[in-house]
Amino acid sequence: MLFFWVIAGVALLLLVLVVTVGDLFDGVLDALDFTGGYLSSTAVLSFLATFGIVGGLLLGTTDVSLLVASLGGVVAGAVVGAGAAVATRSLTDGPTAHQITSSDYVGQAATVTTSIPAVGLGQVSLVVAGQSTALAARADGPVPLGAGVTVVANLGPGVVQVATTSSLSL
């Protein structure tokens, strides 16, 4: 029975280290991985910890043999390890937020938040990929506060050329 508890204790200790400090063992496991990324240190250590806990509990609280306790630990460990593998893979390989660049502003609708004079800069506010952005803006003519505009060009860092909806349809 001590065998199971030692496996569980070591695996849990290493699992806490992996989660808090980083994947210490993934470099080694990556070299051995034939599962397409499902064999991570988190999945392996989750399997071992569950194997030890379930095996130790079965052996200590029931009259089952060492073989039955081991098989119970393997089955429970496989379920928990597979769940950990799927969860860590989906978090690792999931879609990430798009890095917004100035070219993403072109073609976007915006609202004038500081009126744009005939010569000079005003300010517009727009939402790109769910992120609100305020940019300095230039237009071919004066544009009043609150007017709807469309970004037609990027003029430099944080500065765009805008056109009102009426001037776009001409």
TrEMBL record:
Keywords: Membrane, Transmembrane, Transmembrane helix. The chain crosses the membrane at residues 38-59, 66-87. It comes from the Bacteria. This is NfeD-like C-terminal domain-containing protein. It comes from Cellulomonas fengjieae.
